[in-house]
C-alpha cells in the first residue's frame, strides 16, 4: 500500500509552528556557534573538531548499514570522548571563559590605539626586530590583545615604559638581567620583561626550533597574543599566533601582521549595535 506523504504539506505544517521567539532562539544559537568557530579557527582545535565530525558521520553510516560491531565501537569511543573533550579543548575553554568573564564574548574588541599611535608603535617594533635580526640577538616580544597577560607579566620584572626602538633594544642586550625571557607589550607600553612563557607540548615540531620558538608557540596556544621571535642562531624573524609559527618575516610583512593587534575592529555583526546601545545608556 503506497504511503501518502505530501512533502510540501509537511514543510508548511512545520513552518506554521515556528514563532518569532523560536526565530530569536535560533539566531542566538547561530551567533554563539559562529563566535565559537571564530575562536577555534586556525588553531589545533579545528583539526580536533573535524576528527569529531568524522567519527559522528561514521557512527551514522554504520548505524544505517546495520554494522553492529562498528556501531558499538564508535558509540563506546564517543562515551570516552565526552570525558576527554575538556582536556583536549582546555586552551579553548579557558579562552572562552576569560572572554565571557571580561564581557567580550559577543563584542570582540574596541580599538586599542588610534591609527597614528598604532602606526608609531608598529614601526618601533619592526625597527627593533630588524636590528636584532641583523645582530642575531635572540628576543621574544609578546603583543597583548584582548586577553590580559597579568599572570605572565608577574613572572618577570615590571617596567611600564613607552615603546621605542631604543628602549626595546636596551631590554634585549645580551648578558643583562632582562635579556632572557619575553617582553610583554600592552598598547604603546612595555609592561614587563624577562617573563617566563609556557612551552608547547606539541611533539611534532621541527627539532630545529629552540626554546624561544617553543615558548612562543606555547603561549599562543593558550591565549590570543601575537608573539614575535628573533632567532639567536639565524636571526630569522618569526611570529607565533593561535598555536602556529610563521617564519621568515621581513619589515613589510611583520608590520602588516602586527598592525591589526593594535587597531582591532569591532565585531561586524554585533559590535556597532552594542556600542550604540551602550552610548545611549
What can you tell me about this protein's structure?
The protein is α+β, with helices and mostly antiparallel strands and 281 residues long. It has two domains: 7-101, no CATH class; 115-261, 3-Layer(aba) Sandwich (YojJ-like (1), CATH 3.40.1700.10. It is 52% helix and 13% strand. It has eleven helices and seven strands. Strands 2-4-3-1-5-6-7 form a seven-stranded mixed β-sheet, sandwiched between helices. Strand 3 (182-186) and strand 4 (189-195) form a beta hairpin. Helix 3 packs antiparallel against helix 4, helix 6 packs across helix 8 and helix 6 packs across helix 10 (251-258). The chain starts with 6 loop residues before the first helix and ends with a helix.
Radius of gyration: 24 Å
Helix tally?
A: 11
Query: How many strands, which pairing sense, and closed or not: the largest β-sheet?
Result: 7 strands, mixed
CATH-assigned fold name of the largest domain = YojJ-like (1
List the strand order in the largest sheet: 2-4-3-1-5-6-7
Terminal residue distance? 65 Å
Give the total of domains. 2
The assigned structural class equals alpha+beta
What is the CATH homologous superfamily assignment of the largest domain?
DNA integrity scanning protein, DisA, N-terminal domain
Report the mean per-residue pLDDT as an integer: 81
Q: Architecture of the largest domain, CATH level 2?
A: 3-Layer(aba) Sandwich
**C-alpha geometry:** elongated
* Topology pattern, helix = H, strand = E: HHHHHHEHEHEEHEEEHH
| Topology, number of strands | 7
| CATH domain class name of the largest domain | Alpha Beta
Contiguous runs where pLDDT drops below 50 for at least 5 residues: 266-281
Amino acid at each position: 500500500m503506497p504511503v501518502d506523504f505530501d512533502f510540501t504539506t509537511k514543510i508548511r505544517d512545520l513552518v506554521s509552528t515556528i514563532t518569532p521567539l523560536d526565530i530569536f532562539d535560533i539566531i542566538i544559537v547561530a551567533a554563539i556557534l559562529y563566535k565559537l568557530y571564530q575562536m577555534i579557527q586556525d588553531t589545533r582545535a579545528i583539526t580536533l573538531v573535524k576528527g569529531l565530525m568524522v567519527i559522528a558521520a561514521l557512527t551514522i553510516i554504520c548505524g544505517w548499514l546495520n554494522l553492529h560491531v562498528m556501531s558499538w565501537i564508535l558509540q563506546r569511543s564517543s562515551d570516552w570522548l565526552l570525558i576527554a573533550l575538556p582536556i583536549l579543548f582546555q586552551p579553548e575553554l579557558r579562552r572562552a571563559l576569560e572572554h565571557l568573564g571580561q564581557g567580550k564574548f559577543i563584542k570582540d574588541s574596541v580599538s586599542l590605539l588610534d591609527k597614528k599611535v598604532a602606526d608609531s608603535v608598529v614601526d618601533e617594533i619592526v625597527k627593533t626586530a630588524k636590528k636584532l635580526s641583523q645582530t642575531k640577538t635572540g628576543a621574544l616580544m609578546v603583543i597583548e590583545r584582548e586577553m590580559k597577560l597579568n599572570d605572565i607579566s608577574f613572572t618577570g620584572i615590571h617596567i611600564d615604559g613607552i615603546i621605542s626602538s631604543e628602549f626595546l633594544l636596551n631590554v634585549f642586550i645580551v648578558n643583562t638581567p632582562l635579556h632572557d625571557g619575553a617582553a610583554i607589550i600592552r598598547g604603546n607600553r612595555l609592561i614587563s620583561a624577562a617573563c617566563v612563557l609556557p612551552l608547547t607540548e606539541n611533539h611534532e615540531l621541527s627539532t630545529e626550533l629552540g626554546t624561544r620558538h617553543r615558548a612562543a608557540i606555547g603561549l599562543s596556544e593558550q591565549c590570543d597574543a601575537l608573539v614575535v621571535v628573533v632567532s639567536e642562531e639565524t636571526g630569522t624573524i618569526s611570529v607565533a599566533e593561535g598555536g602556529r609559527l610563521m617564519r621568515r618575516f621581513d619589515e613589510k610583512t611583520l608590520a602588516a601582521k602586527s598592525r591589526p593587534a593594535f587597531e582591532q575592529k569591532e565585531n561586524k555583526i554585533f559590535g556597532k549595535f552594542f556600542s550604540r546601545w551602550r552610548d545611549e545608556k
